[in-house]
Amino acid sequence: MNKKIITTTNAPAPIGPYNQAVLTGNMLYTSGQIAIDPKTGELIEGSIEEETKQVMENIKGILDEVGITFENVIKTSIFLSDMNQFAKVNAIYGTYFNEVTAPARETVEVANLPKFVNVEISVIAIVE
C-alpha cells in the first residue's frame, strides 16, 4: 500500500486521530475542513459566507501542498447545519470552480458539526 500523509501549515492542524489529507496512488482524500484560521487556530465566527471562504481556503492550502488546484477535484462533500444556508454557501463555493469542469458533489444537512460550525467540506482530487 502506498499511503502518504499530507500536512501543511496552510490548513488547520488536526484536533484528533486523523490527518489533513491522505495521498494514495494519484488520489488525494482530504479530511473535512471547517472555518478554522490555520495561522491563529481560531474559529472564524462571522457570516456563513466568511465561514465558507475560510473552509475553501483551507482546502486550497492542502491542494497547494501537493501541487494541484481545484481543477483536479473530482468529488466534494458539503455538510450544512441548515440547508436554508445552501444558496449562500454555494455562491462562495462556486467561485473556486469552473462550472463546466466542476466536480461531482453532495450536500447534506446534518444535526451538528464539529465545534458547532455551520459548514464542513471535504474533497477527493486527482494528483497528476
Could you please describe the fold and organization of this structure?
This is Reactive intermediate/imine deaminase. Belongs to the RutC family. InterPro entries: RidA (IPR006056), RutC-like_sf (IPR035959), YjgF/YER057c/UK114 (IPR006175). This protein has 128 residues and is α+β, with helices and mostly antiparallel strands. The chain has a single domain (3-126), classed as RutC-like (60s Ribosomal Protein L30, Chain: A, 2-Layer Sandwich), CATH 3.30.1330. It is built from 2 helices and 6 strands. Strands 1-2-3-6-4-5 form a 6-stranded mixed β-sheet, covered by helices on one side. A hairpin with a 2-residue loop joins β2 and β3 (27-30).
**Mean pLDDT, rounded to whole units?**
97
CATH fold topology: 60s Ribosomal Protein L30, Chain: A
Number of helices: 2
Structural class: alpha+beta
- Shape verdict: globular
Distance between the termini: 19 Å
Protein name: Reactive intermediate/imine deaminase
InterPro entries: RidA (IPR006056), RutC-like_sf (IPR035959), YjgF/YER057c/UK114 (IPR006175)
Pfam family, one: Ribonuc_L-PSP
Family: Belongs to the RutC family.
